[in-house]
Amino acid sequence: MESKIRSLIGQKVTKSSAGGSAGSILVLEFENTSYFFIWCSWRIEHGTKVIVTSSDTILPTETNPSPNGFIGEKTPILIGKKLKTVSLTTLYDLELVFEENYKLHIFCDIGISRDDYGTNWEFIIPTENISIEINNHFEEKMIEENFD
After folding, report:
1. 136: which residues sit within 8 A by CB, 6+ positions away?
2. In what order do the strands lie in the sheet with 41-46?
3. Distance of CA 135 to the CA centre of its chain
4. How far apart are CA 7 and CA 27, in angstroms?
5. What single-letter DSSP state applies at residue 22?
6. CA-CA distance, 77 to 61, in Å (whole number)?
């Protein structure tokens, strides 16, 4: 799995979105059409500054009338950035480092007691008909599907 994710190195982000009716679920798509669905906690940083987290508001506020809230306003910051490095822990936390010192940290925090969510994150490679899922039991599940 890690080699599949590493194949994204050098690829630009073409979509980075969350907020509104999607809630804190982050969708990250790359120019080779591979993408992540991230249901667990995440954080986008730039240098030593936190830009946005999965705990930020998904609703409009007085200072941000966007229907997608603060999350929807800030998550597109990764669009156009090339992935430089990938780091995967033994319990499937993931760090994606992009050019210009942007980072996406993914924290697998959806545990076995959760009945409402069964997945921490999913990596999909449509060109290979592969979906890799990290479930709430901290197990990797690879599914080969037809994405045509």
Report:
1. 110, 111, 112, 114, 117, 118, 119, 120
2. 49-53, 41-46, 102-107, 94-98, 83-88
3. 15
4. 18
5. G
6. 20
Task: Say whether pTM exceeds 0.85.
Answer: yes
Which residue has 């804190």 as its token pair?
Answer: 24
d(CA 19, CA 67): 8
pLDDT tens-place string over residues 4-39: 999 999 999 999 998 777 778 999 999 999 999 999
What spatial distance separates the first Cα and last Cα of the chain, rounded to whole Å?
22
Give residues with Cβ within 8 angstroms of 65, minimum separation 6.
Answer: none
Amino acid, res. 65: P
Taking CA atoms, 3 is separated from 9, 48, 85, 88, 92, in Å, by 10, 28, 12, 10, 14
Please state, rounded to an integer, the average pLDDT across all residues of the chain.
89
Judge whether residue 57 has pLDDT over 80. Answer: no
Closest to 106 measured CA to CA, from 125, 92, 85: 92
